[in-house]
Design goal:
Helix content: 40-55%
Radius of gyration: 20 Å
Structural class: alpha/beta
Shape: globular
Order of helices and strands: EHEHEHEHEHEHEHEHHHEEEHHHHH
Strand content: 15-25%
Largest sheet: 7 strands, parallel
Length: 392
């Protein structure tokens, strides 16, 4: 590894963010060196990545896949680890200068906390970490001198806009939302939406869970909670505006009335690369906006009645306690049921609202408490679906 190279550990290397991150490594081999890769259970792709990038360590979270992974990497000299602890080893590897936290859902929480406790620079793509355990994560970062650089396009945009202005000069941040594929759909049509329709996002190429969250607008609610923790703002300092073109990725309103915005074509490689290159900017040849052609940028207020998931997220943030953790777990479980065609599209917010009303409680102060509430909420959702309590 040359002096100029940054060692990178990719947690969730086989997912949408992880694979796009590896595209960036291919573009900048003189700057980036993969030292660790981990996946949940996608063995074939993980093996292919390991042979291409020759990391020191790979890990598979699903322990039932460990023997297969070990056999396929036999003779490579790559250390093979298993389970949650193996993934956490990848997140704390000494040669990892930066850790990309891209594992989907609350399953990525422990590895993120491990990276922060190890004082790593963390490129955070897993918004559920801050939603379910924002206090724990931010305290770990403060206590151990870790740096969090957001990868979500909206938070990356805010992060970039604050480089010159500073958080103390901010009046508000405005997170932009595409509105998803159903922004213009009639409300009475939403309950008839199929998973296949919901997975067709008009602008972004994302994994299934995030794509469904965009369709319900829960992703924007989760991002409000994430922004609350990342930037130390109050709920009233975070607004949402629907911007169907997805060109402006977020804006910052400063106290003097000026507004800064970050604009680019909708391509996740840009915020991923910026998190890896920060504070520098590296070349990314594709994806230039053609400002010489006529075009328009639209802005609309969000419709909280039509998309109740957004309202529920805001209410959870205001409620405090364990509400955000319950919201996150209920949403993950409900989205999974929808993708399996066991729950309707509008059954997702109905399920989340019932879970919040039944399970909300005090602040969670340990990782174990977060996991307990997460598991409790998931069981509640599955039991409720089995009893046909909700719109199915």
């Amino acid at each position: 590894m040359t002096e100029q190279q940054r060692g990178i550990s990719i947690i969730g290397s086989t997912g949408s963010i992880g694979t796009q991150c590896l595209d960036i490594v291919r573009r900048h081999p003189e700057r980036l060196r993969v030292v660790a890769l981990s996946a949940n259970r996608s063995i074939d792709l993980l093996v292919s990545q390991a042979y291409e990038f020759s990391p020191e360590v790979v890990a598979v979270a699903d322990e039932s896949k460990f023997a297969e992974l070990q056999k396929k990497l036999q003779g490579t000299g790559i250390q093979v680890l298993e389970g949650e602890e193996g993934v956490c080893r990848c997140a704390t590897l000494p040669k990892a200068d930066i850790v990309l936290g891209a594992a989907t859902g609350v399953a990525g929480l422990k590895s993120v906390l491990s990276a922060l406790t190890a004082g790593k620079a963390l490129a955070l793509a897993n918004k559920e970490t801050l939603v379910a355990a924002g206090d724990l994560a931010m305290e770990a970062a403060r206590a151990h001198g870790a740096t969090i650089i957001p990868v979500d396009s909206e938070h990356s945009a805010v992060f970039q806009c604050l480089e010159d202005g500073g958080i103390n000069n901010v009046e508000k941040i405005l997170l932009t939302a595409s509105g998803g594929p159903f922004w213009n759909s009639a409300p009475h049509m939403l309950d008839k939406i199929t998973p296949q329709e919901a997975l067709k996002h008009p602008n972004w190429d994302m994994g299934p869970k995030v794509t469904i969250d965009s369709a319900t607008m829960m992703n924007k609610g989760l991002e409000v909670i994430e922004a609350y923790w990342l930037f130390g703002l109050t709920e009233k300092q975070i607004d949402i505006v629907v911007h169907p073109q997805s060109i402006i990725h977020s804006m910052v309103l400063f106290k003097d009335g000026s507004v800064k915005a970050q604009l680019s074509l909708p391509d996740m490689r840009l915020p991923i690369q910026y998190a890896l290159s920060y504070p520098d900017r590296w070349s990314l040849p594709e994806g230039r906006i053609d400002w010489t052609r006529p075009q328009s940028l639209e802005f609309h207020p969000p419709d909280l009645k039509k998309f109740p998931c957004l309202r529920l997220a805001m209410e959870a943030l205001e409620a405090g306690g364990n509400a955000s953790a319950v919201l996150n777990a209920a949403n993950e479980a409900a989205v999974d049921l929808f993708l399996k065609e066991k729950l309707s599209f509008m059954g997702i917010p109905h399920m989340i609202e019932r879970a919040l009303s039944e399970l909300s409680g005090p602040v969670l102060s340990t990782y174990e408490e977060v996991v307990h509430v997460d598991q409790l909420t998931r069981r509640y959702v599955l039991d409720a679906a089995g009893r046909n309590t909700f719109t199915l």
